[in-house]
Amino acid sequence: MLHRLRDRLATGRLSPLARKVRGNNLTYLSPAKLLSLEAVLRRVRRNGADGDYLEFGVALGGSAIVIASNCPAGCTFHGYDVFATIPQPGPEDDARSHQRYVEISSGRSPGIGGDPYYGYLDNLYERVCRSFTAFGLPVDGVHVSLHKGLFEDTLDPADIRPVAFAHIDCDWYEPVRYCLDALRNRLTPGAIVVLDDYGDYGGCRKAVDLFLTKTGEFRVRRLSPHAVLERVRQPH
Ligand SMILES: C[S@@+](CC[C@H](N)C(=O)[O-])C[C@H]1O[C@@H](n2cnc3c(N)ncnc32)[C@H](O)[C@@H]1O
Fold this sequence. Notes:
The chain is built from nine helices and seven strands.
């Protein structure tokens, strides 16, 4: 009930671009999450954080298009995804995550607004590239790059190019833990990380809470509708 009211209010405050992304059934983010994402992207610019913009968990490309369109000239948006059915959760994930995976892997998951579920499409990567182009953001490998495969295979651990913003939207414990650890030494002062599933899946929440305790380098700006962490100290 409260969620529905919050989403109705948020819808009217979204940018025209975010509204169009939702209208085209390209994102699972609620209006409240999209609105918060847009506010965070403005904050990254105000912080003067310098570096690339990343998303882990692109799916149909909706939130990625919003992020890439806010990525300043001279920086690159990198989107990472298997562009296929989501990998399965593991022992650190909660029952809800495992139930959701059973629904997906049994072929019973509905898509957005009556569309087929994206994880069942065999040309998802090409579709996402076409969506980016339709929004004036060609996947040119310069301003926009999309990396197909498991994060562990496509994110080079030796690459320490600075990151100003990251959206981690990959549901389960293990990929969230991996992304946070991989990002830790790349996030520049003022950089912000948004964790989409903090309030939705127990594995994500566990990975974030452990990371915060372990590092002590981030201020929690908010935990709802998603978690927003801002770097306040450099790693020692
Ligand atoms: C909830 S969806 C992303 C939703 C999207 N951001 C949006 O705007 O709707 C999560 C995505 O993360 C991807 N994913 C999860 N774990 C992954 C991993 N280890 N490597 C690569 N992709 C992964 C899934 O395949 C899926 O496409």
